[in-house]
Input
Amino acid sequence: MGGMSWIHWLILLVIVLLIFGTKKLRNIGADLGGAVKGFKDGMRSNEEEKPAPPAGEISAKGSTVEGEIKDRQKS
Output
């Protein structure tokens, strides 16, 4: 009662084929595959392009220099 048998799936497939047609379904599949491939390539290239921070430099993200703090406190 709760599950769908293979006959139900077959009828559903025939209805989908009649509505969309095989050519349109093929195009949708190719577009979806291209999108997934592009996403994977983008994720892979994003990981490779991250440069390592130089060892001697301080990054501006969340770091302070003691001289700045002392100057602000005196003013």
